[in-house]
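Researcher: Quick test of sequence recovery. Tokens follow.
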């Protein structure tokens, strides 16, 4: 649905040229929800604004639904943009217009008749749960309701693609969850392709099918969310997802483990489970098979889009050869075994 080919973007800054994006190649499939994460300044907003040419790339091509937007003239580009809706962190509503008239605006601009607009906007307001609020003004709405207006407005031109730039970053966690549920519903019902950029990893974890990690204007890692979040390859990815994946050891436990006698002669390991290995009784079987005592110190099981994963911090005691055999046995069962360090 979306193809970015060799996208580079320079900005003219006061201290010279800033290269915000460097040779981005990316393919986003029809109907998927694709997330882009990265630190502040990584180029996320620039990248998403290049998809509808709000920013024109310095180099490269942007294909949406098979059409190269970078070669279109102004009129053709305006038409092509109807296939791409966008929502923003601060909603960008017109305060002097009602809910209905905010959603109607893009349709007025293309000269649609009032009755056709009525026919288009009314079901959209129902879809986003604002059927009863059509006559209200933005100042009378909560943040979540404002973003619902933003979503309805973005959908007014019946786009194939919805771009979301930090769309839930100004909302509290509960409102965020309801907006994410709405986006998922729209994605399923309308088959819309959704591109999400956010610094909130929970949003990616709850909403997206695939994710790309942007750093210094380059994509450093991408894949399906489950793989990237449970087996991050790059140090930056590990840092970004740390808070939502919950492999952190509680500080009190770390302190106790740093007492020399506790870990004496024992091996401290972190075991990462995913998919089937999460459900299997591997630890009890391991104790039976090998002469190894396992003391579970800390653990967590979670799921991403219905697929379970988890980690256990264990202290294992036994002969070195038995321990090695036990770790190898776990690795054969898709459990990743890492030496855990206590600082
Ligand atoms: N309009 C602009 N003019 C000059 N530099 C810009 C402009 N917009 C963004 N930048 C720079 O480009 C880089 C990427 O910015 P941005 O895409 O906003 O990153 P993010 O959304 O990941 O925080 C940053 O170094 C930023 O300062
Ligand atoms: Mg940004």
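Model:
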């Amino acid at each position: 649905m979306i193809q970015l080919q060799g996208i580079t973007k320079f900005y003219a800054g006061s201290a010279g040229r800033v290269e915000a994006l460097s040779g981005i190649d990316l393919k986003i499939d029809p109907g998927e929800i694709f997330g882009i994460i990265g630190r502040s300044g990584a180029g996320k907003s620039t990248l998403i604004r290049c998809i509808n040419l709000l920013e024109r790339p310095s180099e490269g091509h942007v294909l949406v639904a098979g059409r190269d937007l970078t070669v279109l003239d102004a009129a053709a580009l305006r038409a092509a943009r109807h296939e791409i809706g966008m929502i923003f962190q601060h909603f960008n509503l017109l305060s002097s217009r009602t809910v209905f008239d905010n959603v109607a605006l893009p349709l007025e601009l293309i000269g649609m008749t009032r009755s056709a607009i009525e026919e288009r906007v009314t079901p959209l307001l129902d879809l986003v749960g604002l059927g009863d609020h059509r006559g209200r003004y933005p100042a009378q709405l909560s943040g979540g309701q404002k973003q619902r207006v933003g979503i309805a407005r973005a959908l007014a031109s019946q786009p194939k693609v919805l771009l979301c730039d930090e769309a839930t970053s100004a909302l509290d966690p509960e409102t965020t969850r309801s907006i994410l549920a709405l986006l998922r519903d729209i994605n399923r019902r309308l088959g819309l392709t959704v591109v999400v950029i956010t610094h909130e990893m929970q949003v990616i974890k709850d909403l997206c099918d695939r994710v790309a990690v942007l750093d210094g204007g380059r994509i450093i890692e991408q894949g399906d969310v489950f793989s990237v979040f449970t087996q991050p390859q790059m140090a930056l990815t590990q840092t970004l997802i740390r808070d939502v994946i919950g492999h952190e050891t509680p500080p009190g436990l770390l302190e106790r483990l740093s007492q020399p006698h506790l870990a004496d002669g024992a091996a401290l390991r972190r075991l990462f489970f995913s998919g089937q290995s999460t459900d299997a009784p591997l630890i009890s079987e391991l104790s039976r098979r090998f002469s190894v005592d396992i003391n579970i110190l800390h653990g967590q099981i979670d799921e991403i889009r219905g697929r379970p994963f988890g980690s256990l911090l264990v202290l294992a005691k036994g002969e070195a050869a038995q321990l090695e055999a036990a770790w190898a046995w776990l690795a054969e069962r898709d459990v990743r075994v890492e030496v855990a360090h206590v600082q």
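Residues 173-190 form the longest helix (18 residues).
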